[in-house]
């Protein structure tokens, strides 16, 4: 290789790496340090308390409730989102069957594409406000109003501890599906047309096309989607904050770690303890991402 | 930030970074940036800044704190139910009149903690703060960190209206005491608030209802109101469950006397399992049954609007309610206050007893640039002119005695004034745990919703709250407070 290649690369990399170190890596390192102190977040004299904050986590029932909710989120949210998004993107891109040797989507698929993507461009706060009205627990709520018309009593979407978390997951799915429809559509467009053609010539129906051709060839994209959605499942802060009763209620039934971290730090002035929760969340997220990438590793198919 | 290397935090962090071999990367501009991080470097700018301007002014009768006439003043006001025009149109011009050379910076915000927490951590603090709202800063934590200026000097200063009197003698009894942290005055509680059940006297007259005096009457009233298609009692579970726990605590205090509230604040063993608490919780849980479940998902403005529309009869709140709802209230709606009903015939306090207390804390940061100016600003607020202007702008009565004389009172304030007269010496006092133990208070909000919306029984409520109180008491990371008055 030519002389001077490395100074060239370093020249390009230095600025972003520096920014990353200052604004991402250094706060992480600080969080690790702060989690070992009793810092109250107000003045600059934190006392070192060792692992006390971490031992507190063990008997903090709110913390464990939040961890359980992340478990539910992690199981339900990515799965539902991916299934719906796959179904829609298949319909949009391939569902119309063959026309003139080309795979096409169902009729009007261009319009649907815009509609599906729309929730993605709305700010979370707006989505929250929208769903406050949709989920309202008396008969003035959108869903309960419709249910009332067919004689069903109002459902406490956000106030019944048994279904509040699922209601919020519903909003997350609604918001995420559009993005993954676009992602999967892009993935499907990279699958060579002749594969479909050959399969169709052999008499494969839409069902077979989807499960035997599309799905296996889309594996890489789905893996990415799974990691993205999994990381989103560790967040959910904004929606829970806006939608839930008493921020995380009723009875802790919707609380998530970012919300507890925020509350512990900014309401209870326990920045040290909040940082310990943050460190715990950091390890959960990292473990999840590493596990997913490892478990779902498969051989790549080169076209 | 030049001295940040001297703080222990910075050294450890630097060593840590060196160990993982990042020194080379941060040696240049990074080092400066890193030292600006969260836990270091807070003290330096504040110390240098506060020394310079406030040393100027000479102490005189008109200027008891020795405020430098040209020192700028920054005022942060919580812009909630009270608005902030009382500051911009009344108190700030009054300060400007006293110190024409001073420039005043006004900040009106709904999010006190989000706005100010980083500024406290960074050492750049304003000179006076109206620390209120859902997102207020933890006063006890601020005091423990030495960020609050003790207000003894203010209370002992001569009053603006009558220099022969001390400021502490011009305010309602209990005002100074309500602002004690760790036995010393740090908070100036300015607004005189009364708490109870608010209703539309016009609606009650129309339906021939009278506010209930006992819980038996209360239940009978609930049946009547329900039959008339009105929700008898409601509060907003989503963000204002504390309105409901105020009522529960008031009832318990009426049964047992104010000692109960003292014991709750002091985390006395078993206080939540006393009979007075159990009776009160059980009585209120019965009323909760008449409330539609959907109210748990409502926010306070939603429920208050429903009351204005005649859909809710009794609403627990404080005397700021009328002003807060001013723009929503129809002309026919006449706010009135009724005390919480008596639980037993043997209650220590009569039905007429109301909870009245000084509320809305104003604080002066100790490490601001012009703390003397902050004190003087509070003294101006406590003058009759300042207090009267506040009542005119915000519709709320202040702790300054006699300041509202000659003002025409709204229906709500007139009713409040009548209730106060009827109560006489039977005043239910305040709770300090809301300022002292935020974590405990959060648990109380949670359990209040569970109780009032019927998910737990009164006994379970008492058990859970006792457990939370015990946990707070045992938590070494929470500094314990105590009050005897």
Examine the coordinates and then state which fold CATH places here, giving the name of the CATH topology of the largest domain in chain A. Answer: MetI-like fold
Estimate what percentage of residues of chain B fall within beta strands.
Answer: 5-15%
Biggest chain pair interface: A-B, 43 and 52 residues
- Helix count of chain B? 22
| Uncertain runs of chain B | 1-37, 40-54
- Poorly predicted ranges of chain A: none
- Which structural class matches the secondary elements of chain A? mainly alpha
CATH superfamily of the largest domain in chain A: MetI-like
Overview of this structure, please?
The complex is a heterodimer of chains A (303) and B (485). By secondary structure, chain A is mainly alpha-helical. Chain A has 2 domains: 1-34, no CATH class; 49-295, MetI-like fold, CATH 1.10.3720. Chain A has helices spanning 5-34, 52-58, 61-93, 109-121, 124-135, 142-149, 164-189, 193-201, 206-217, 219-233, 237-243, 257-266, 271-295, and strands spanning 97-99, 102-104. In chain A, strand 1 (97-99) and strand 2 form a beta hairpin. With 485 residues, chain B is an alpha/beta fold. Chain B folds into 3 domains: 4-34; 50-192 and 358-426, Periplasmic binding protein-like II (D-Maltodextrin-Binding Protein, domain 2); 195-356 and 428-474, 3-Layer(aba) Sandwich (D-Maltodextrin-Binding Protein, domain 2). Chain B is 44% helix and 12% strand. In chain B, helix 5 (85-98) runs antiparallel to helix 18 (384-394), helix 12 (241-256) packs across helix 14 and helix 12 (241-256) crosses helix 21. The radius of gyration of chain B is 24 Å and the shape is globular. Chain B starts with 7 loop residues before the first helix and ends in an 11-residue tail after the last helix. The chains are: A mainly alpha (303), B alpha/beta (485). Chains A and B meet through helix 1 of A and helix 1, helix 3, helix 6, helix 7 and helix 21 of B.
